[in-house]
Design a protein that fits this description.
alpha/beta; Alkaline Phosphatase, subunit A; 3 domains; 9-stranded mixed beta sheet; two-stranded antiparallel ribbon; 13 helices; 16% strand; Sulfatase; Alkaline_phosphatase_core_sf
């Protein structure tokens, strides 16, 4: 990395005769990050990312990775692959739990997808299915933090913030990172990166009269009055910054206030879905009994991405099925299948899928054996426990192979035996597709260089188109 990346603003001022007083620290660092982290000679395959986060842990065995061994022993006791000191509540009997619905080959590629996802099955040849995903923590909060930030303990910048930092925005009137229905601040925080890279939280409006971003409407009597207020606040803040010889956090706040003002002018029209065609609304399942909420979220994600937002995250929660997975999983699939497939079809129709990387995943998967928290429920009312050892995710567009399945688990569906992809590897691969070397996109904090992949991660070249 350039030495400029490791200089504080004060050291920059002291080392220059003319000074950098007219330049924001974030601008200097951002320019250096882009220059130094780019992969030499590579044309990025992806320009932007849409991350569809299935919070709670979807069951890979029921959706993408069925096992004959488990199906044939449904309801029978199987040997536990866990260490003897590991205890999972409600799984003492270790009964094999077969798939909730048939999982069949789809498309020309023969990709295995459940009957519960008929719309996704129709775009199977656009998907790169990863069946060897691996994480480190079996708890929701920690696993979610690791998936988003690379670590499960400390507060670190999220991957959206890192991508914003490395690439900047394509539209100065919009944030570079938006999180729709964010599952918590730590999943969209900028951490120690400049504040401008923090995700903007957005909530899907319940109707066309409700705005999805807090304070998006201009409360001033006119745009001119609002501009005067912003300018006055900016002058006062800048005077304090000059007295302090620089303050990165305050500079980020000034930039965010400017962005907020521009968003009040341009964003209300962008997030308005009332003028969308009937065909578009139907494609996403908007107006449907089950699919309306997530359909609106996915359509907003497409509109934001198309308008220049680098990283859009859409969280679809409710996948934590410890009990009655047979009754609950179809409901979740009904809510998400059409919106997700509609997004892929819409991106492809608009010519955006080639340079938009779409990622679908939960924080981990679920066990092949059943869980009965009551201890008395019949097996058809059982659920599944958490399983970070192996789970499924998929990617589409943005330079990955379509109609390609990578990774394999053992006969039980517990351990990855081929094609393992750790979270760090996934992050490294995403950055690579965006033209960024994950080892060189760093930020110096408390005396050491940090990066999204920490000291780990390898690009998964097998899935690159």
């Amino acid at each position: 990395m350039s030495h400029a990346l490791h200089l504080s603003r004060r050291r920059m001022l002291q080392s220059s005769a003319c000074g950098f007083g007219s330049l924001a620290l974030a601008d200097i660092l951002h320019a250096a990050a882009i220059t130094n982290a780019r992969i030499p000679g590579m044309t990025p395959k992806a320009k932007r990312v849409i991350f569809l986060f299935m919070a709670g842990g979807p069951s890979q065995m029921d959706l993408f990775d069925p096992k004959d061994f488990i199906r044939e022993r449904h309801g029978q006791k199987i040997d536990s692959p866990l260490r003897k000191e590991v205890i999972q509540v409600g799984t003492e009997k270790y009964l094999a739990l077969g798939a909730m619905a048939p999982v069949k080959p789809r498309g020309e590629s023969g990709m295995m997808i459940s009957d519960l996802m008929p719309q996704l099955s129709s775009v199977a040849d656009d998907i790169c299915l990863l069946r060897g995903m691996n994480a480190d923590n079996p708890q929701h909060a920690s696993a979610t933090n690791q998936f988003h930030t690379g670590v499960f303990t400390e507060v670190r910048p999220s991957m959206g913030a890192w991508i914003s930092y490395g690439l900047g925005t394509e539209n100065q009137n919009l944030p570079s990172f938006v999180s729709i229905h964010a599952p918590g601040l730590r999943t969209y925080t900028s951490g120690f990166l400049p504040a401008e890279h923090q995700g903007t939280p957005l909530t899907v409006p319940l109707n066309d009269k409700t705005l999805p971003i807090e304070n998006l409407r201009n409360a001033s009597s006119s745009e001119a009055v609002q501009r005067q207020r912003i300018d006055l606040t900016k002058r006062l803040n800048q005077r304090l910054i000059d007295d302090l010889h620089g303050d990165a956090n305050m500079e980020g706040m000034i930039q965010n206030m400017e962005l907020a003002f521009r968003m009040q002018t341009t964003t209300p029209q962008l997030v308005d879905l009332s003028k969308e065609s009937k065909e578009t609304l139907e494609r996403y399942g908007i107006g449907g009994k089950d699919s309306d909420k997530h359909g609106r979220a996915c359509l907003l994600a497409r509109k934001l991405s198309e308008s220049g937002v680098r990283f859009v995250q859409v969280t679809m929660d409710g996948w934590d099925h410890h009990g009655d997975i047979r009754g609950n999983l179809p409901r979740l699939c009904n809510q998400t299948d059409q919106p997700v497939a509609g997004l892929l079809k819409d991106l492809k129709q608009r010519g955006l899928l080639n340079d938009t990387l779409v990622l679908w995943s939960g924080e981990f998967g679920r066990t092949p054996w059943s869980q009965d928290l009551s201890g008395t429920a019949p097996i058809d009312k059982h659920g599944r426990e958490h399983q970070p050892e192996s789970f499924c995710a998929w990617m589409a567009g943005g330079g990955v192979k379509g109609g390609f399945t990578f990774g394999e688990t053992d006969e039980m569906g517990y351990r990855v035996i081929n094609g393992k992809i750790h979270i760090h590897d996934l992050h490294a691969t995403m950055l690579h597709l965006l033209g960024i070397d994950h080892t060189r996109l760093t930020w110096n904090h408390v005396g050491r260089d940090f990066r999204l992949t920490d000291v780990h991660g390898s690009v998964v070249k097998e899935i690159l188109a």
